[in-house]
Amino acid sequence: MGKDSSDLFGPLDSKPASLRAVPVMVPLPAPTAYSYAVPEGMAVQPGSVVQVPLGPRQVIGVVWDEATADPVDPKKLRPLTLVFDCPPLSPDMRTFLDWVASYTLSPPGYVARMALRAPAALEPEPMVEGLRYCGVRPERVTPARQKVLELAEDGLAWTRSGLAHAAGVSLSVVDGLIAQGTFETVFLPPPPIVALPDPEYRPPALEVAQKEAADELFEAVEAGGFSVSLIDGVTGSGKTEVYFEAIAETLRKGKQVLILLPEIALTADFLERFQDRFGSKPGEWHSDLSSRMREKVWRQATTGEIRVVAGARSALFLPFDNLGLIIVDEEHDPAFKQEDRVFYNARDMAVVRARISDIPVVLASATPSVESQVNCLQGRYRRIHLPTRFAGAALPDLHLVDMRRHPPERGGFLSPVMLRGMKKTLERGEQSLLFLNRRGYAPLTLCRVCGHRFQCPQCSSWLVEHRFRGQIQCHQCGYSEPTPNACPECGTLDHLVACGPGVERIAEEVEKHFPDARTLVLSSDLGGVKRLRLEFEAVAKGEADIVIGTQLVAKGHNFPLMTLVGIIDADIGLSNGDPRAAERTFQLLSQVTGRAGRSGRKSHGLVQTFQPQHPVMQALVSGDAAAFYEREIAERERALLPPFGRLASIIVSADNRAEAETHARQLRQAAPVTDGISIMGPAEAPLALIRGRHRFRLLVHGRRGSDMQAFLRQMAINGPKERKTIQVQVDVDPQSFL
Ligand code: ADP
Ligand code: ZN
Predict the structure, then answer these.
(1) 239 Cβ inside 6 Å of ligand 1
(2) Which sign does the torsion angle of CA 330, 332, 338, 342 carry?
(3) What CATH number does residue 591 fall under?
(4) Residue 738 falls within a domain, yes or no?
(5) Cα(657) to centroid(ligand 2), Å
(6) Residue 556 — very low, low, confident or very high, per pLDDT cuts 50/70/90?
(7) 410 domain-assigned
(8) How far apart are CA 187 and CA 131, in angstroms?
(9) In this structure, is residue 509 part of a structural domain?
(10) Fewer Cβ atoms within 10 A, N terminus or C terminus of the chain?
């Protein structure tokens, strides 16, 4: 099965073949690879993807680099079952996977498995049946048959439908010729799922600032080798157009490109723009693809047939054949962080992958992360600045609405100032967007008689009413029940009240004030990706007057008629205990208000807040991002917070509260004494209960340059024995503090 190659350490070398052992990374939480015997006649090399027995099962693994640890007698080992016919993982890729495992303190087998996420793609795709003219002319040559023959006469192979289509005839004409013996059957390799992108297809006319930016990136690609560039450009400045030029140059060099996007499933827009520029779409990679499609993309990325992949964070683990450039768009976005099994930030790991492969990486954002800003200031990243919007479009004119001075009417959430703005926008035939980052109708339901609050039976979170569905739901675990009529505590009927707003409740208020307007709620719980894509298109075409949305609407979409953006509650994220709260709020609000006025119409943003003096609000309306970052950076530096210090969070959870707490305490006692590293906790996590598991948190803080990983590893080694009932999650560089 295995392909031949010169550096095999299989049966070709002098030692008896059956005596070879190789380390194989298997999908287990083990700290190292397992050893297997290579059966006689099987050719493997480091990186080969193999199937191996593991207990009673067969699993997929990767042959790793020669083990240095204690050699085992191969006779005592179980043999490899088979080698897949796919390109071996490159040395770069293996180094990268090892690096991620060691940095995130994850089992290397789990990390390696992330590179093999399409098991059926490990074997080549089956050939497809085709036709070739074999010189036999049919008895009767009709005009339709003549067209087919003219095309086929050169003797090249065609698919049945491809030939009919090219000749402009129906399939039955081709079938008729097959019946006459005009064609012989041949087998063709399956067609690539996307055509080759053409770097010269439709280059844009760049503006001066764009041209300068593109030239800088071009140089980075030309020079080759590792470099990081940050495109820091206001919303609508044309960052995409600029980095497309770096992609074009990489394609000219015959290399592959990876574009990471935070919400690929929702950026149909992006794929189209790519097609306009390069004449074909990129390969897509995200969780919403069918498994068949994932397999094809995986396979064709490994063989090099697909030149450009645009994908969500997990695309970073695709084993590309010849990667030449990585783009991370919206690099500040929290969606790049995975908080499940292997905890990693795809933005940071993209930089690592680029460094290991010695290729350039481009980060882009209108509101770069503080981390990337500091890297620019310290000269590690090249900063490319685009200060104005494309084609002279103005940024929206932003105003704070002080909710203490302009309160909404009783039971409402929209200030009269907001309502006036919406009314004017409607009258001009333009669109408004109201942003509230809360799904459902109301975040809390309580009984007016006894004060009972509806809480999830398995989590420490309130149940959120979803009125469209007639349910109350837990946003932590998905638990739901029909919205009750009576209070379960005191039994009183019809005295339940909804507290606070969700998007559904805002829609109700909007409909009351503007009964004739076309109102649309955009929220991830109201339909799948397909439906959302259609709805975004409808909004872009002007088929809604007032759009009410969660953070889904913050990203990447171009709505030409959108001239008013209203923020319902700008203060939501400011006080949640997250050291990045101010940064996050600034980024989110800038992104959302940046949806307005992208086609050059005069546009406005209204920001409802109870804290108009807060630095985030002031930075937002003054448009002085630089001042905000300067202040934020100074504050982080003073408090030794990232990137001036390092953090890791450890969550210990168990069904039994005391057990979780004891384990967390023992873990803390096991911590080595290390200069510059300190531990806070254990304390009950803010989300003390999720899915019936009690959670305790330790927060580890290290000064810059301290070896956090060594510290955490030592803690695990000295710590209490692992137990089935206890789960310990380590999150290096955490983004979540709940
Ligand atoms: P950003 O990503 O910086 O928010 P975009 O790349 O989405 O900005 O650009 C904003 C809009 O301006 C898009 O519709 C884009 O097609 C258009 N645009 C930007 N630069 C050019 C250009 N040089 N030629 C034509 N259209 C451009
Ligand atoms: Zn729950």
Answers:
(1) yes
(2) positive
(3) 3.40.50.300
(4) no
(5) 17
(6) low
(7) yes
(8) 8
(9) yes
(10) N
Residue 403 predicted with pLDDT over 90: yes
616 plus 541 within the same structural domain:
yes
Neighbours of 627 (CB within 10 A): 13
**Domain C-terminal end among 59, 83, 116:** 116
Same domain, 494 and 507: no
Q: Write out the residues surrounding ion ligand 2, Cβ under 5 A.
A: 456, 458-459, 474, 476-477, 479
- Looking at the fold, whether 682 and 725 belong to one and the same domain comes out as yes
Question: Residue 687: nearest ligand to its CA?
Answer: 2
Pairwise CA distance, residues 237 & 714, whole Å = 48
SS3 of residue 410 by DSSP: coil
Instruction: Dump pLDDT digits (tens) for 558-583.
Output: 788 999 999 999 999 887 778 899 99
| C-alpha 101: how far from chain center | 19
Q: What per-residue confidence (pLDDT) applies to 17?
A: 44
Is the Cβ atom of 185 under 6 angstroms away from ligand 1?
Answer: no
Q: pLDDT category, 13, cuts 50, 70, 90?
A: very low
Give the per-residue pLDDT at 274.
96
**HSE-up of residue 608 (Cα within 13 Å, Cβ side):** 23
CATH, residue 13: 3.40.1440.60
Task: Give the number of the ligand closest to the Cα of residue 474.
Answer: 2
- Beta carbon of 235 within 6 Å of any ligand 1 atom: yes
Which ligand does the CA of 236 lie closest to? Answer: 1
Using DSSP, state whether 401 is helix, strand or coil. Answer: strand
CATH of the domain at 677: 3.30.70.600
One domain for residues 289 and 317: yes
CB 237 near ligand 1, within 6 Å: yes
| Residues 449 and 495 occupy one common structural domain | yes
CB 547 within 8 A of CB 557: no
Given this model, what pLDDT does residue 609 score? 97
Can you say whether the dihedral through the CA atoms of 172, 178, 179, 182 is positive or negative? positive
DSSP labels, 534-601 = HHHHHHHTT--SEEEE-GGGGSS---TTEEEEEES-TTGGGGSS-TTHHHHHHHHHHHHHTTTTTTSS
pLDDT(630) > 60: yes
Among 367-381, 418-432, 590-604, name the one with the lowest average pLDDT.
590-604
- Whether 435 is in the pocket of ligand 1, judged by its Cβ within 6 Å, is no
Mutate to test the pocket of ligand 1, among 235, 241, 274, 331 (most ligand atoms within 8 A of CB): 241
Q: Is ligand 1 within 6 A of the CB of residue 270? A: no
Nearest residue by C-alpha to atom 2 in ligand 1: 239
Question: How many domains does the chain divide into?
Answer: 6
Give the CA angle between residues 173, 178, 180 to the nearest 5°: 100
Within-domain flag for 239: yes
Structural domain harbouring 624? 393-438+503-633
- Same domain, yes or no: 495 and 525: no
Residues 474 and 511 in one domain: no
Q: Is 207 in the pocket of ligand 1 (CB under 6 A)?
A: yes
Q: Which two tokens stand for residue 479?
A: 């638990």
Same domain, 620 and 667: no
Is residue 14 over pLDDT 50? Answer: no
Per DSSP, helices labelled H in 186-238 are: 208-223
Q: Residues 326-347: what's their mean pLDDT?
A: 95
Q: Is 426's pLDDT higher than 90?
A: yes
